[in-house]
Amino acid sequence: MTTVRKCCAFLTRLFAVTAVLASFFAMPVHAEDANKGALASELEDIKSQVLKLNRDLFILEEDLLFPASTQIAVFVSVDVGRFLKLDSVELKIDDNNVSGFLYTERQRKALEQGGIQRIYLGNLKMGPHLLTAIFTGNDAEGRTVQRAISHNFDKTDETVMIELKVEDSESSYRADIKVEQWAL
Amino acid sequence: MAVIIQSVNTKRAYRIGQLLRPVSAAALLTCALTLFAQPSVHAAEQTEGSATAKTDLEDKFYRQALYFYFAGDYGSALRQISLNRQRQGIDSDRSQLFEAGLQVAIGLHDQATQTLTRFEQNQTETTNGSKAKSATSPQELLLIALLQLTEQQIDQGDNISAQLTLGKITTVLPDYVEQYHILSQLAYWPAPPPLTAQVQQTTVEDDAVQTNSSAAYIALNQALLYMEQQEYSAAQPILIELKNQQWQAPDVNFWQKLFNPFAQPDIFDANDQLKPQVQDALLQQQAINDYAKLLLAQLYVANQQYDLAYNELVDFPQQSPYAESALFLFAYSAQQQQQYDMSLKLLTLLQQQYPYSNLAWQAALLSAKQVSEQQSLAQGLTLYQQAEQLYLQKIAEIKQFGETFNDSKNIMDFATKANDEQNALLTPKSDVLALILTQRFNTDAPWLKKALNDPLLATDYQTLLSLELLSDNIKAQQSNSQWLKGTLMLNSQRQARVIEQQKQLAYRGMIQSLTAQKQRIADIIAQAEIEQNPQVFANPTQQQWLNRIDTSQATLNKLASQRNTDDEQQRLDKVKGVLQWQLQSTFPQQLWQHKQSLKQLTEQLEMLELQASRFSDLSTNPRLLSNFDVRQQQTQTDINKMTLNIEALNLKTSREIRGKISIFTQQQQYTLQQLLLTSRHQMANVLEQMAQADNISSPAVSGVDSASQGAR
Question: Which residues of A touch B671 (CB under 8 A)?
Answer without folding.
Answer: 18, 21
